[in-house]
Structure formats: C-alpha cells, structure tokens
Specification:
Elements lengths: L4 E2 L11 H5 L4 E8 L2 E8 L5 E8 L2 E4 L19 E4 L2 E5 L6 E4 L6 E2 L6 E9 L4 E8 L9 E8 L5 E5 L4 E7 L5 E7 L10 E7 L5 E9 L5 E6 L5 E8 L1 E7 L4 E5 L17 E3 L4 E8 L2 E8 L4 E4 L6 E8 L2 E8 L2 E8 L6 E6 L3 H4 L10 E6 L5 E7 L6 E2 L8 E5 L13 H7 L4 E6 L8 H4 L9 H15 L8 E6 L1 H12 L5 E5 L5 H6 L8 H5 L8 H5 L13 E6 L7 H13 L4 E6 L9 H20 L6
Parallel strand pairs: 1-32, 33-34, 33-35, 35-36, 36-37, 37-38
Antiparallel strand pairs: 2-3, 3-4, 4-5, 6-7, 7-8, 8-9, 10-11, 11-12, 12-13, 14-15, 15-16, 16-17, 18-19, 19-20, 20-21, 22-23, 23-24, 24-25, 26-27, 27-28, 28-29, 30-31, 31-34
Helix pairs in contact: 5-6
Length: about 625
C-alpha cells in the first residue's frame, strides 16, 4: 500500500491552486545600488500591476514611489529602464502620463517633463551638468508605428528637453564615463532588431554638453552589441556576438578586444531597456554572469590580468547585475526557489536574498509537490537539435494506473527571440502537481545558445519552432513519458502563434491555449508598433501586399483545418497583438462548431499583470482541458 489516492493524470487535487499561484506574488526587476541602499522595481498584481520602486537599507525595506505613481516605461511598448537613482534622489518614468519625475529623499514626486506626446526610458544621470540623458520616443497623435526616437537631455532645473542625437530609428543604453567627458550608446536602424544589428557609438561631451568627435567603435549589419559600460577607471566594455556568442569585449580607444572568450552567452536579447549582466566592483574587479545550456552562472574577472574565476553555484536565471563598491546586487532564481533580489559575497560567491517574488513561507509548504526540471536535448527535423526543460508530473498524494501515461503540455515561449528558463514557476507547478507533464521548449531561434542557433529561425517562423515543439512531444511520448494521444500545446504572444500554427497545420496536438497569440501575420505586419514593425522581415520575409508566404503561414486563413479545441486569452488593450486577431480566429472556429473559448481581460495590454486575471486564466485553461480533452471530473 502506498497511501496515495488513485486518480487519472490531469485530475489530481493540488494545494498549488490558482489562488496560491497569484497569492502574494510580485515581479522583481532592475535592481540598483546607491551608496548603502539597494533599489528595485516591484510589479504588484494585487495593485492592478502597478510598478513600485522599493528601497532596502540595512534590512529596512520600504516603498519609495507612492500610490498612484507607476514607475514603468512604455518606450518600444516593452519598456524597461524606467528609473535611475543617485544620492537618494530618484528619477522615474510614470506610466499614467509617460513623463519623468524627480523624487528627493523623503519627498513627493515632482514632475520634470511636460511633453504629452513623448515617452522616456533608459535614464542616465549626468550629475556634473545637472541633467538627465534618456531615450525619448515621440508619438505624434498617438502614432506608435511612426514614432520618432532620439537621445535627449533633460535639464533638472527647468525640465527643458534638448536633442543630443537623432537620425537613427532606435537608441538605447546611454552610458556616461566616470569623469563625464564621454558618452557611449547604442543605435540601430530598421529593418533590424537589436539582437541582429546594432552599433556602438562613442562621443566626447564638449563644454556645452553637446556631442563631438563621434565614432562608431563596434557593431555592424551582422553583429549585435549590448550593454556598453564604463569601468571606474574609464575603460569601455560591452558585449558582442561577433564570434557567435555574446562575449565580453573592451575598447582600448583604437580597437575592440575580446576579453572573455567562451562558448556561452554573457547577455540576452534586448527586449527591454536597462539590462545588465555584468558590473564593476572596482577598477580591478568585475562580476559577470553567463548562460550555458539553459542554466546561468556567476564569476569574477580580475581586470589587470583578465583571469576569470567562476563561482560554483548554478542558477535558472540571472539578470540586473549591478554594483557599487563591495555591494553587488542581482535578480536570480533556481529550479527550487522563486526569483529574488539578492546581494553577492564577492569572496565566496554566496548570495543573500533581500526580497523574494514569492515569500518563501507561502511556498515552502509546496516543496514536496514541486517537479524539478530535467534539461533535455532532442532531435528535430533536418538533422538538427533542439532543447528544453522537461517536468514530469509529481504529487505525493496521488498516483495514476501503472499503464497510464500523462497528458503533456508543450510550452513555446514568447519572442520568439527569447528563451525559457528553469526558474521556479508556480504557474507551471500548478499543472505538474495535477498530473500533467510539461515540456518547456527552447526551439531553434531561442537565445542562450549562440547567434547561429538564433538565426535558425531566420525566415522559418511558424515552421522551425513548430517542428521543434512537435519533435519534443514525440520524443517524450516515444520514451514513455507522455500519452501521445493527449498532447497539448500552449504559448503566449509569439508562443501563441506557434501554438496556432501547430494546431492548424499539423495533427499531433489534441488541444491548446493561445495567450495573446498572433493568428494573422498580415495584420501584425501592418498593425503593430515601431519596435517590431519590421521584425517579420527577418522572421518571414519583407512584407509586400499580397504576399503568398504571409498568407500561407497565417492560421486565420486556414481555420477549416483546425479541429482541435482551443482557448484564447487576450488583453483588451493589447498594442502588440491587437485583440481583433483572437476575435477573428475564435469566430471562425465557433462557426464550425469546434470547441473554443475567448476570454477578454479588461485593462490588460500585452501580458497579464492583474492578479484576478492571472487566476482566472489558469482556472479557465484547466477547466477547458478537462471538458474538451481529458473528459474527466476534476478532484475537489
């Protein structure tokens, strides 16, 4: 006797409920160090997704930005880089009006800019000239496609905005040298995305604060540069994928030199502003992070000798590495612990958590129910290899018949130029603890495996990614880890498109869920925002009216081929994938009598931030599968 209850896979009762998934969870991003204080941005679903700047000083943690202020940028629609802090004074972009605010220690936020048509991000403080340097996005009459991006300065005394540089389609990462004499930044042009082609610019700042002696020091049409940063003694470092992987380089005033060559990625695609995967403790010491085979690591670089030493710990994710003096802070997660803001002991490599995205006390009770990821690689079409994390079903209270195999949920991440990680995710454990197996796929085109792997999706979106999801499902079913007749595919955004393609053009999956997914490539090509307005040129081909390829790869035109039940979940105000795409696909299926459901979430944009919506989405998806695939009652 095992003492376990008997029940079919997918029907198990679990303490990891949708309420538990939402619980007291917050998102954590963009840690910073200012003196002896550590700052970060906290996204709070229970406050309708409001982003709050939080400060920790010697164990005392408290909010800085008061309600209703929402420290969030909308530049490129994905934002990031929404705040900066120096000597206790905070500068941030407010989501409600998109303007910049200054908040002195202990005081209320005061408005700096008054440009209703403009948005700001990537704030850099130029204290010596009493001004901010930032990326500005001007949207005349609300036009998100023909927005004008420039590098500007904002006078802290008057709020006056002055253009520092213009003429490029995009700008990012302004970085001021320690002596204030030089500025480095990134720029790029359509049709490229920043992980395909960017240019690193460096210029002197003259007596008036204007740019002079500009020079392009790295980058090109087939090179992506990320994260320019100056060391305390004025040396410029950056990441470049010129050798396939994003590796660390230095600029010696005449040429770029490879500093830390490895078959590993020291960066990630620049979907948002403000990323940092390395930081300087001093002119002699750098702390770096990198990913290899889907897992992340930390290390210490002695700059005079370029001797590198990796710390032994392994992480599911690392981001936001920042330092000031001996204080090094970052956001990190592991397969068994939720994301946290943590400080690093430089000598030992030990991390001390300051704030968790989920309070440990609220999920430690679930530890016995956690399914730990297994990193797998599997063959896919064309003799290629793809990657993923496999989570077998696990619940100590339940067991299924020995002859039964579990349903498998195949997840395709968004982007598609992005990656999934193995960090603890209660929304994933929600499924495994109910008897579902989960495969989280890093299909061809995902980041973390080098530029060559990313480029395998060039012109192949809706083909290679779909093939890899199918191949991964067949691989697991073939080795007995899943029921080949109960395969589910799901994804959000670009992953939603992969989901719809898999269900429309193939027959391997029996059900699916599309979270704010693309169904009409033509509509996406002509009705999206500036940042991604030419992304499909690379993923599919340059768009021309009447394009046969865009038609062929758009599930909306082939709804008659789709016979598997599918649920659509979409934000009402989504600017990236407009709601009408989900509505059109839903209507086509409903007209044919295919089991389907469309849930529209009011007040949500691209991705769900509000706790009640996240909870409802999970519960609805589970109920949909129970009714239309498993056809079994859920345990109560």
């Amino acid at each position: 006797m095992t003492g376990k209850q008997a029940g079919a896979f997918g029907s198990w009762n679990s303490p990891i409920t949708a309420d538990a998934v939402v619980g007291d969870a917050v998102s954590l991003a963009e840690p910073r160090v200012d003196g002896d204080a550590v700052y970060w941005v906290e996204g709070r679903p229970r406050e309708k997704g409001r982003s709050v700047v939080v400060r920790a000083v010697r164990g005392d943690v408290g909010d800085v930005t008061p309600a209703p202020f929402d420290a969030r940028s909308q530049v490129h629609s994905y934002g990031g880089g929404a705040y900066a802090v120096r000597d206790g004074t905070l500068y941030f972009a407010n989501f409600a009006d998109n303007q910049l605010y200054r908040q002195a220690p202990g005081g209320p936020p005061a408005k700096l800019t008054s440009s209703p048509a403009c948005l700001f991000a990537d704030i850099c403080i130029d204290a010596g000239r009493n001004r901010l340097i930032a990326v500005r996005e001007e949207r005349p009459n609300g036009d998100v496609v023909n927005a004008i991006n420039t590098l500007v300065v904002v006078d802290l005394a008057t709020g006056t905005e002055t253009t520092l540089d213009s003429g490029w389609d995009f700008y990012a990462s302004p970085a001021l040298s320690p002596d204030g004499a030089k500025l480095a930044w990134l720029s790029w042009r359509h049709p490229y995305m920043p992980w395909i082609s960017t240019y690193l610019q460096v210029a002197d700042l003259d007596a008036s604060g204007a740019l002079s002696n500009r020079a392009t020091v790295a980058g090109g049409d087939k090179v992506s540069i990320l994260q320019p940063q100056w060391s305390p003694d004025g040396r410029l470092f950056f990441l470049s994928d010129a050798t396939d992987f994003w590796n660390l380089y230095g600029w010696n005033r005449s040429e770029a030199q490879l500093v830390l060559p490895r078959d590993a990625e020291f960066g990630a695609p620049q979907w948002q502003f403000g990323a940092s995967t390395y930081a300087f403790v001093s002119a002699e010491t750098m702390i770096y992070s990198f990913t290899r085979n889907g897992m992340w690591f930390l290390g210490r670089l002695d700059l005079p000798t370029l001797a590198a030493s990796d710390y032994p710990a392994e992480f599911a994710s690392i981001s936001g590495v920042r330092a000031a003096g001996d204080t090094v802070v970052m956001r990190c997660s592991t397969p068994s612990s939720a994301a946290a803001i943590a400080t690093l002991d430089i000598g030992s490599g030990k991390l001390t958590s300051i704030k968790h995205s989920i309070p440990p006390a609220s999920y430690q009770q679930f530890q016995p129910y956690f399914s730990l990821p297994q990193s797998i690689r599997f063959p896919t079409d064309g003799g290629e290899t793809a990657y993923g994390f496999f989570y077998p079903p696990h619940n100590p209270d339940w067991e299924a018949a020995v002859s039964e195999k579990p349903p498998l949920i195949v997840k395709s991440h968004g982007g598609p130029t992005s990656a999934t990680t193995a960090g603890l995710d209660l929304s994933l454990q929600f499924w495994t603890s109910r008897g579902f197996a989960v495969l989280d796929v890093n299909y061809r085109g995902s980041s973390g495996f080098g530029r060559k792997y990313r480029e395998k999706l060039h012109g192949q979106w809706g083909v290679a990614d779909v093939a890899d999801c199918i191949a991964g499902a067949k691989f697991l079913a073939g080795r007995g880890d899943a029921d080949g007749a109960k395969l589910i595919v799901t994804g959000g955004s670009a992953g939603g498109y992969t989901t719809l393609c898999a269900l429309t053009f193939h027959r391997e999956f029996a059900a699916g869920a599309s979270y704010y997914g693309v169904s009409d490539l033509v509509a996406l090509a002509v009705d999206t925002h500036k940042f991604e307005s030419h992304y499909l040129d690379w993923l599919i081909e340059p768009y021309q009216p009447g394009s046969a390829l865009y038609h062929q790869r758009s599930p909306i035109h082939f709804a008659e081929r789709l016979s598997a039940p599918i649920i659509f979940l979409h934000g009402e105000d989504d600017p990236v994938v407009p709601l009408d795409q989900a509505e059109a696909m839903f209507s086509a299926l409903r007209a044919r009598g295919i089991p389907t459901c469309l849930l529209v979430f009011q007040g949500e944009k691209h991705g769900f931030r509000q706790s009640e919506h996240i909870r409802r989405a999970l519960e609805s998806e589970l109920l949909f599968y129970a009714m239309n695939l498993l056809r079994i009652p859920l345990m109560s």
